[in-house]
Design goal:
347 residues; alpha/beta; Rossmann fold; 4-stranded parallel beta sheet; 3-stranded parallel beta sheet; 14 helices; 13% strand; globular; binds pyridoxal-5'-phosphate
């Protein structure tokens, strides 16, 4: 559960800093319905702010409803992409939510907001003397360090040395300290060995462990869950039946939207995808894989496994093939030969 005990002194420091830096923290309600609830003066500021700019006003862009624009965008409907049958080979309609239009290009800014903000607004994290530690293979620590910078907090990012050069370069623009641990996508244990060292030796460091922070689950339950509900209501006709949601699990935060949707569609299913090359829910966890953004060899504490109905073991070769299909000239030519629209291919 989320500890909401208030520490008055530290809270005062956080409030003073926020005032000094003119930081306004959005609520989940504003993230769910940004068009309706975002203050007019914030919207005005957003009109001249880039999607990834390190500007506190971009806290209001932690939503699935950003206008798909690199700069100056406001809000619209949930960003989705429907995969046509010509592409999937199945009759069922498959609709995905697009994380690309969050600042940093991934939904993990939401999960990390859900972890940091409860501690900040209760005074459990003092931005004037403590540092936020973001252990992750990538997008969570990018999102965490980005949010922390907007909120005026210092960060320590921990990620495997084998992650892309671009990740490290971009992280340097937002994190005060970056620690590279041995390995790549499958080396979550090595990251947590470093966390144990920091916990034992650096009292100023506060660890935001996405695998056990209920704020991660809660953000996806309210914000992602309601975004999925809206996308479904828009797409479904009176005779349609919603079958279920499939999410790939890294920290299992996104699985919370499945819990939300089951309350609305009680006979729907929740499926969780993981790499075939490191089958954890499926076969206890061993091996290495190349699917960025999903974890392995452990089941996160925030994963409500009793509500998970299906496990999908996804071959990472298929993921690599998909990247080539949608990026290389021969792949694009093949997609056109299937009769897919240019608009879909461009997305
Ligand atoms: C792009 C992307 N998709 C999916 C996930 C998995 O989400 P979750 O950590 O909520 O399980 C991650 C996690 O890092 C990610 O970066």
């Amino acid at each position: 559960m989320i500890d909401l005990t208030v520490h008055e002194e530290k809270l005062k420091n956080a409030v003073d800093l926020a005032k000094k830096r003119k930081v306004l923290i959005p609520t989940f309600k504003q993230m769910r319905d940004p068009e309706k609830y975002t203050p007019a003066r914030i919207k005005e500021q957003l009109k001249s702010t880039g999607l990834w700019d390190v500007d506190p006003v971009n806290l209001f862009r932690i939503t699935w409803k950003n206008e798909p624009k690199k700069t100056g965008g406001l809000f619209g409907e949930v960003n989705t992409l429907e995969f046509p049958s010509e592409f999937t080979g199945v009759k069922a309609r498959i609709i995905a939510l697009c994380g690309k239009w969050f600042p940093t290009g991934a939904h993990k800014v939401g999960a990390s907001f859900g972890c940091l903000v409860p501690r900040l607004v209760t005074g459990q994290f003092d931005p004037t003397c403590q540092k936020a530690v973001w252990p992750s293979t990538g997008n969570y620590c990018r999102g965490g360090a980005y949010n922390a910078q907007l909120l005026g907090c210092e960060s320590i990012a921990i990620l495997p040395e084998g992650m892309s050069k671009e990740r490290f370069e971009w992280l340097r623009t937002v994190a005060g300290e970056i620690i590279a641990t041995p390995g790549t996508e499958s080396n979550v244990k090595e990251i947590y060995d470093e966390v144990a060292r920091i916990r034992a030796s650096r009292p100023e460091a506060v660890i935001f462990n996405q695998f056990d922070e209920m704020g991660n689950h809660l953000w996806h339950y309210y914000v992602t869950g309601s975004a999925m509900e809206e996308a479904l209501k828009k797409a479904m006709g009176p005779k349609d039946r919603y079958a279920g949601v499939v999410v790939t699990s890294g920290s299992a935060g996104t699985t919370a939207c499945g819990d939300y949707l089951k309350e609305i569609f009680p006979d729907s299913k929740v499926g969780v995808g993981e790499a075939l090359q490191c089958p954890t829910l499926y076969l206890n966890g061993f091996g290495e894989h190349r699917i960025e953004g999903i974890g392995d060899k452990h089941i996160p504490w925030v994963h409500n496994v009793k509500n998970t109905d299906l496990v999908f073991a996804i071959d990472d070769n298929n993921c690599m093939a998909m990247i080539r299909l949608s990026n290389e000239p021969e792949g694009l030519e093949y997609l056109r030969s299937l009769g897919l629209s240019d608009a879909f291919i461009a997305q």
